[in-house]
């Protein structure tokens, strides 16, 4: 019997404001985040930004077990377009992959960026794009050798943001895709169309919705990504413009055992308890959407 969507839904620390993007905002402690995940009934989590949780895989697994959680995998920004940095970057990836694998993780999620401390988007030449494609292939190999799987994550502000960039990676690599329903929408992709055309390439699904008014401010460069997030760019599931129910239904028809992640990018301006509680309420609302989807099947 196919497991319910709720049973396949992992949490992500970024839903509690934990993020690797430079200057993102106030970061909660692991205990605050993991205890809340457990209280809300999650049994799986992503890794969070590198360094948020223990980097020793066995120590990480032991920590998660104390909260009744297991590791699904994690999102890692990678620098692949620069041939002079590739060897060191793949070695860094291999180290993180080994940590995740030792903790029981199954998915390494990569996101190509210009620099770890500078997410700018310069125009890349053809050689740099092919360097990225080769980098993805190298990560495919590293993850497979550790018994994990690799998927790339189109993301606003990264080097793979726009639909044409996502399509190029799909065309020139065999790397699997993270179907992030919001970041793909922001970049001009149609997640539903990608399900129809590339269902076999989807490795993992990141569920989030989009507020179209705030999204337009972001696309017009009136606000930064963090400012947009703080203004409600990613509302609770079902309260934005992404046709999530239709997308999930199509996915369930094609790939009924896919894993999902509730990943509502959030940013905290400070340690205000009211702001933290607001994030928690949003998670509860999103979980209600998932439970209603399951009940309607």
How would you characterize this protein structure?
The protein is α/β, with parallel strands linked by helices and 297 residues long. It has one domain (6-296): Alpha-Beta Barrel (TIM Barrel), CATH 3.20.20. It is built from 11 helices and 8 strands. An 8-stranded parallel sheet has the order 1-8-7-6-5-4-3-2. The relative contact order is 0.14. The mean pLDDT is 95.
Distance between the termini: 13 Å
Strand content: 5-15%
State the oligomer. Answer: single chain
CATH fold label: TIM Barrel
Secondary-structure-based class equals: alpha/beta
CATH architecture: Alpha-Beta Barrel
List the domain count as a whole number: 1
| General form | globular
Q: How much helix is in the residues?
A: 40-55%
Question: Largest beta sheet, briefly?
Answer: 8 strands, parallel
Number of helices: 11
SS elements, strand count: 8
Based on CA atoms alone, the radius of gyration comes out at 18 Å
List keywords for this structure.
TIM Barrel; 44% helix; eight-stranded parallel β-sheet; 297 residues; alpha/beta; globular; 11 helices; 8 strands; 13% strand
Give the topology:
Elements: E1 9-11, H1 30-39, E2 44-46, H2 57-66, E3 70-78, H3 86-102, E4 107-112, H4 126-145, E5 149-152, H5 163-172, E6 176-180, H6 181-186, H7 191-198, E7 202-207, H8 212-219, H9 225-230, H10 244-254, E8 260-262, H11 273-296
Parallel strand pairs: 1-8, 2-3, 3-4, 4-5, 5-6, 6-7, 7-8
Helix pairs in contact: 2-3, 3-4, 7-10
Give a short summary of the structure:
This protein has helices at residues 30-39, 57-66, 86-102, 126-145, 163-172, 181-186, 191-198, 212-219, 225-230, 244-254, 273-296, and strands at 9-11, 44-46, 70-78, 107-112, 149-152, 176-180, 202-207, 260-262.
């Amino acid at each position: 019997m196919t497991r319910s969507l709720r049973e396949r839904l992992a949490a992500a620390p970024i839903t509690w404001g934990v993020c690797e993007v430079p200057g993102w905002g106030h970061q909660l402690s692991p205990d605050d985040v993991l205890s809340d995940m457990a209280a809300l009934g999650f049994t799986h989590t992503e890794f969070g930004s590198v360094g948020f949780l223990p980097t020793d895989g066995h120590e990480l697994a032991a920590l998660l077990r104390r909260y009744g959680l297991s590791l699904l995998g994690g999102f890692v920004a990678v620098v692949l377009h620069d041939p002079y940095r590739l060897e060191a970057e793949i070695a860094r990836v291999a180290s993180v992959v080994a940590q995740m694998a030792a903790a029981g993780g199954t998915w390494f999620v990569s996101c190509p960026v210009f620099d770890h401390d500078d997410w700018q988007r310069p125009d890349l030449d053809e050689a740099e794009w092919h360097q990225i494609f080769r980098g993805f292939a190298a990560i495919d190999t590293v993850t497979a050798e550790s018994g994990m799987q690799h998927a790339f994550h189109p993301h606003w502000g990264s080097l793979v943001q726009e639909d044409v960039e996502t399509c190029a990676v799909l065309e020139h690599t065999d790397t699997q895709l993270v179907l992030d329903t919001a970041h793909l929408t922001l970049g001009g992709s149609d997640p539903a169309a990608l399900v129809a055309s590339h269902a076999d390439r989807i490795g993992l699904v990141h569920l989030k919705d989009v507020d179209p008014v705030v999204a337009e401010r972001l696309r017009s460069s009136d606000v930064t990504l963090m400012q947009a997030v703080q203004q409600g760019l990613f509302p609770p599931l079902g309260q934005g413009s992404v046709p999530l129910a239709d997308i999930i239904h199509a996915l369930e028809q094609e790939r009924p055992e896919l894993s999902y992640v509730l990943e509502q990018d959030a940013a905290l301006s400070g340690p205000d308890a009211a702001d933290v509680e607001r994030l928690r309420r949003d998670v509860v609302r999103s979980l209600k959407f998932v439970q209603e989807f399951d009940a309607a099947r």
